[in-house]
Amino acid sequence: MSIARDIGAETFELARSARELYSVFVRTLYYVARGRRERGAVVRQMYEIGNKSFVFLTITMGFIGMIMVYQSGLQTKRVLPEFSLLGATFLELLTRDLAASLAALMLATRVGAGIAAEIGSMVVTEQIDALRMSAADPIDYLIKPRFIASIIMTTTLIIWGGFVMFSVGGAVGYFAFDIQWRTWASIQLVSAGDLITGLTKCVAYGAAIPVVSGYCGLSTFGGSEGVGWATTRAVVSSSLAIIILNFFISGAAYVLFPK
Amino acid sequence: MIPAVERTLTLRTQLEDFAAQVGGGVMNVAQVVGGMGVLFGRIVSRMFPPRLDYPELRRNMYKMSVKSLPIVIITALFTGAIMVIQAAPIVKRLGAEGLVGWAASFTTLREIAPLLTALMISGRVGANNTAELGTMVVTEQLDALRVLAIDPISFLILPRFIGIVLTLFMMTLYADALAIFGATYCAKALLHVEPASFVHGMTSGLLGFGDVANGLIKSVVFGIVMALASCHFGLKTTGGAPGVGRAVNATVVASAAGIFVLDYFISFILG
Predict the structure, then answer these.
(1) B131: nearest CB among A114, A125, A228
(2) Residue B68 per-residue DSSP state
(3) Which label site among A32, A146, A201, B211 has the fewest CB atoms less than 10 Å from its CB?
């Protein structure tokens, strides 16, 4: 009986969180269209989300690019000792999936944790209640600028991250497997469908990170331990959101753009 | 128009600012790495002979491992499926449906399962651990322990360190199995590759125990880095509730960067 009760309780809890998350998302969209505009808020958040993640993202994406090319080079070597399509295939995979998903996972940890920690501290120190008392909806005032900034900067950073991965990969290909840059940098396998899939993912992830972690931040309770909990939940939930969104977008793209 | 002398002056101060920023960043990184090294030394010194609080270890293992199972299961199943969706067009182009089992599980076992499990566990366990330690530091509970002549490293840090490393190792094993399970059934749905031939492609000699061991060695190294980062930032927390948030943020960023950078070197060394 207790197992059934636990599962039931978990399900109700999950359904409640999903409904609240949905409500945050809808209200964010509403305020993007109708809310008041505060000068400079979006730009400030763009700096927080974008510029401050730049070095972190460049380093991690560079290293993962090197690993991927090195591993797939070894893999190719075992089956067909021929590297002429390695660069083109890598670029295809980057455009369709890898650049967007890996960069978004990185951003989910940095940006998501940052947003949840900031909003969570505001909740704990009752600044959010102060906002509500001044008739300013925290979603309009806090989440909307982060939402707009995150969509723009996530897309930009993903494109930059993909570029870093591809060029670092080219260097590894040149030094480890003797692939010339001309052979490496070929776009013959990238189709319009791949590009659309990749850009859809950029926008979807960029929208998901601030909404999910903003929701986690707003539902903080109980002192400094609560802020820690909220931050943890923000990182986990936004990473999960990215993986699940990736599954559905990739599946849809597989059906919509057959090769 | 700004006079030439002033222009060179502003340029110089700008350059100086830039140099100061770069230097400050380097010093910061060095400080964190050094702090983590010192902490590691202290932890190791408590291991021989083991001076460890076993009930605390058991409590932490339950909280870290058992409670993380749901997210590990979801992540692994979806990841396995995504690997097949991404490999599908390439496999179809080469007409090598029999190889899809090998292609998907090679990357999963060696890279994706250890990496994604580490990222998820770092978000759940590492961040949570920092928050807990940070709260203890902010509310002066660590000082209270010291007053009672209880060594915080062997009472708090060592059990958490061992807990995180073991958790990540076990979760990677789970994730390997579940990701391959997800990949098998996704391959059946998308490419009409029967599970039997998927498993055959995996076990017919192209994959060995070395590939599994590669991923598991990685998971242990990731676990050590993650545990050190999360304990280090937790112990260094200052400044109330916002401080705890900042510490958690720093942990997550440092773990992710450390995991990716080390992943490259381990891949290169193990080959």
Answers:
(1) A228
(2) G
(3) A32
